[in-house]
Amino acid sequence: MNPPNAILDETDRAILRALQADGRLSNARLSEKLALSETPCWRRLKRLEAEGVIEGYQANLSRKKLGYGVVAFVQVTLGNHAGETPLLFERLVAGMPEILSCHNVTGDCDYMMQIVAADLDAYGTFVRDRLRKLPGVASIQSNLSLRDVKSSSALPI
C-alpha cells in the first residue's frame, strides 16, 4: 500500500506546505519561494486543484474575537438506525453553522461533533432547542474545552 501522498512529488508537497502556511500566496510569490518558474508552478497548482488535492481556500478566523467563547466536543447517539433517520439527521446537521465538524464514528456513540457557541447559555439553548430535536437523537454527551492546546486544520505533508 502506498503512503497517503505517494502520488505527490517533493515539489507538489512543497506547494501544499506553502499554501497551508499562507493560502494568499500569489503564483508569482509561490514560484519564487519554490525556485520554480511561474508557468510550471501554475500548472502544478491547477493540477492539484483539478485532482481535488486542494479542495478550496479559506481564511482562518479567530473564534474568540468573533464572540464564540465556548467549544464543545459532543457525542451523539441515535436511538433509531433504520430507514432514513440517520440520513435525515446528517442532512440537518450539515445545515447548522454552529457545528464545525461532525463525524460518524465507531465506539460508544454514533457521531462526534465540534460545536461553537457564544457562551454556556447559548450552548445550552442550542442543545435544548436544536440538537435534541434532531430526528433519532437518543443521547447527547458534551465535553467543554477549557483551553486550546493545539488547533489546526493543516495536514502533515
Automatic annotation (TrEMBL):
Keywords, comma-separated and alphabetical: DNA-binding, Transcription, Transcription regulation
Keyword field contains Cytoplasm: no
Organism: Azotobacter bryophylli
Domain HTH asnC-type: 8-69
Superkingdom of the source species: Bacteria
This protein's name: Lrp/AsnC family transcriptional regulator
